[in-house]
Amino acid sequence: MPKLFILSAPSGTGKTTIAAKVLESLSGIRRVITATTRQPRPGEVNGRDYIFLSEEEFKGMMEKGEFLEYACVYGNYYGTPKSQVEENAKNGVDSLLVIDVQGAFEVKRQMPDAISVFLLPPSLEELERRIANRGFVDDNVKERLRIAKKEIPCAKKFDYVIINDFIDKAVECLKAVVLASRCSSERLEESQRALDSEVVSLIKGGECYVKET
Amino acid sequence: MPKLFILSAPSGTGKTTIAAKVLESLSGIRRVITATTRQPRPGEVNGRDYIFLSEEEFKGMMEKGEFLEYACVYGNYYGTPKSQVEENAKNGVDSLLVIDVQGAFEVKRQMPDAISVFLLPPSLEELERRIANRGFVDDNVKERLRIAKKEIPCAKKFDYVIINDFIDKAVECLKAVVLASRCSSERLEESQRALDSEVVSLIKGGECYVKET
């Protein structure tokens, strides 16, 4: 079965950049697009950046249990549609979800087989610089740092922790996590197109002669 | 803690080639050199290809429990020295052991934290071709194929299974397994040099504020 990869980090660590670079250079993986009721910012495209929904539409999906998780932030709803992950899996494609730390835990609880990855800033000074440099008008740097300090201790509860000190290195690590998962023995069924039918039937039906003791 | 990676496969699948290429292009990992009582073949170098021992030396190590596993094949002893893996770990270096399937199970039993990787030939025809092309005088192709058919069903008992249909792809996969392991959260301690002390102390001492429910 294809996997869901959850990429999470304190705000400003660079998870969106890392995710974009991995999606660019790796095939067979698609980003899960968050649904939201907030207004699109200039340049944001529906279905690419977010799925923009009315509050009525969003609440309808909530009631039907169509979100892996959802949250209300400053009066706007955000949610992860279950259907995208299912659709990707059906098509043999992995899913990559970029999400805040609270949401990551909720999704992992719903899908324990998902692989969770925490992206760490190398230092708080660097994180502060990155948040300030984004230059969003509504960014409250001190408040974001305060939250980051509460989120960083959660890193060890994730399956993987990647330090974003050098973007290329962090991208390589996330790609490695995805590639390694693809050759885990529990995903062997997916690789069988690359195998001759005789080898497949040996794997499926044959008995391992070696004593494991 | 650095890890021991066990690479195993039916004879002729190409595990030595794959291992060499991974060791060439990845730092922080060293091959575990097998000890043997057999005579060196032309071109083989002591300490590089094998550790060549007298039967007396070998049996002395056996008695002192200095092998992770050992076996006697056609009158010659082969064994995996525990000390190399320990030495590498002490130096912060991962270990890569290339070994037959029986030996892989024995090592995994002794070191359950080791990561086991099975290399699969894409087809039995291809395996036969590879064995024949090696052109060892003493190679009995039919016998090796018979054993391979008994080993291939063991693949699913390994942590990872890599199909060696294209060498570069197989090398990438094994590298991904090693790199992914290095950013698993259980190995976070090893990465702390890349982190500022404030971040380290948050990870170590801080409490994850997020409810996991």
Any overview of this molecule?
2 copies of one chain form a homodimer. Chain A has 213 residues and is of the alpha/beta class. Chain A has a single domain, classed as P-loop containing nucleotide triphosphate hydrolases (Rossmann fold, 3-Layer(aba) Sandwich), CATH 3.40.50.300. Helices cover 40% and strands 19% of the residues of chain A. Chain A has 8 helices and 9 strands. Chain A has helices spanning 15-25, 55-63, 82-90, 101-110, 124-134, 141-151, 167-182, 197-205; strands spanning 4-8, 29-31, 35-36, 51-52, 67-73, 76-81, 94-99, 115-120, 160-163. A 5-stranded parallel beta sheet of chain A has the order 2-7-1-8-9, sandwiched between helices. Chain A has a 4-stranded mixed beta sheet with strand order 4-3-6-5. In chain A, a hairpin with a 2-residue loop joins β5 and β6. In chain A, α1 (15-25) crosses α7 (167-182) and α5 (124-134) crosses α6. The longest helix of chain A is centred in the last third of the chain and has 16 residues, at 167-182. The radius of gyration of chain A is 19 Å and the shape is globular. The mean pLDDT of chain A is 93. Chains A and B meet through α4, α5, α6, β9 and α7 of A and α4, α5, α6, β9 and α7 of B.
Which descriptors apply to this entry?
homodimer; Rossmann fold; five-stranded parallel sheet; four-stranded mixed sheet
The greatest inter-chain interface is formed by: A-B, 59 and 59 residues
Helix/strand-derived category of chain A reads: alpha/beta
Structure summary, number of beta strands of chain A? 9
Number of domains of chain A: 1
Terminus-to-terminus distance of chain A: 30 Å
Task: Tell me the helix content of chain A.
Answer: 40-55%
Radius of gyration of chain A: 19 Å
